[in-house]
Amino acid sequence: MASTTVPTICKDLDGDDRWLAVHKRFVQECKEKDPEVMFIGDCVLESLQFTDFWNSHFVPLHCLNFSIRNDRTQNVLWRLQNGELENVRPRVIVLHVGTNNIGDSAEEVAEGVLAIVATIRSKLAGVYVVIPTLLPRGHQPNPLRDKNAAVNGLLKERCAGMDKVQIVAVDGGLIQSDGTISHHDMFDYLNLTNVGSKKVFEPVWDLLHQILTENEKERDLTPSE
Amino acid sequence: MASTTVPTICKDLDGDDRWLAVHKRFVQECKEKDPEVMFIGDCVLESLQFTDFWNSHFVPLHCLNFSIRNDRTQNVLWRLQNGELENVRPRVIVLHVGTNNIGDSAEEVAEGVLAIVATIRSKLAGVYVVIPTLLPRGHQPNPLRDKNAAVNGLLKERCAGMDKVQIVAVDGGLIQSDGTISHHDMFDYLNLTNVGSKKVFEPVWDLLHQILTENEKERDLTPSE
Lengths: 225, 225
Known about the structure:
The structure is a homodimer. By secondary structure, the first copy, chain A, is an alpha/beta fold. Chain A contains seven helices and five strands; from the N terminus they run H-E-H-H-E-H-E-H-E-H-E-H. The first copy, chain A, has one domain (3-211): Rossmann fold (3-Layer(aba) Sandwich). In chain A, helix 5 links the parallel strand 3 and strand 4.
């Protein structure tokens, strides 16, 4: 079994126990809050919550963001199997993880993501899972961009036909004609600026809006409510 | 010689060459921009630039922010000796680095910071160096908080009497009465939220404002200008 699919607690290599403290807070937030949408993943989603686009577009949808900077698929898997999906009934989960699985093959990373999807399904049967494609990274073309593209291709294949699982292609517009990524979009060539966030996450917001509105319409069909 | 004081390029362990790409961009920005203030350091200053307080208070002072997430003292030292202080004449440099020197002693971290101050002095003789104390970290009390406090104590001693070097105590108010740090101040118990940034960096802004205004007053004393 690939290590990407084995739930793994993040070791406290620093010595201040931050990862576990953040996880425990997420578990507590599940008891206190009632999110419609949950963002779960890594640095890309973590930094998203400090952007203007998050505040203007995602906050009004009642979103919780359970993302930790360096997480790999196995760490997210551990978190979700240890309380971060308890006591909540979100309608949608947005998942971005895998770009930090530096040492793993595209096949292994895709398996890791699919293991997370399976865990979400087992905990929250009816929830919609939205998977923005892994973003390109690095100022210049490099092997990690190629691997992330390969992961995206594999996920697209394997999620095709799955009920309530939607891959959203979000990397359009980041890579410039000369192959570089601008720091105006990604300040460190990994995480998004305000400008980049709007560019990348607008299609995700569109889909969320559509999913949440469709549910409203279904409700409207029941006049007795 | 402690490794903290030896200029060290950050190895491209990921495989996408991001660190060097960011450094090269900083060197380029020195040629294009004319900052009054430069922020140089690690994750704490990197995340600061995405806060409301940065936009409302530091941007109007004409600040450049040359901070990279995981940098240790030796990495900042390398950057400053390889172009990030060329072609610029800032009046003040704000330096926060050392919290990522996990494996080094407080004495070694302090030496690293002092080596950076010496490099700044050798490149920009008249510049004011402002050093906010290393922030506490971790949700609960832990050895890294103690070490950062020890670094702060050493720096306070050794910088006493240095011309145009000012340590600013900035950790007041982060540690609550039960010893914990709130995620409202530090979302990951290392980096600051909007709320935490205001709390921590207001004294830094006050000092910058004072330094920049004093210079203005000195100018005003020269009627021939």
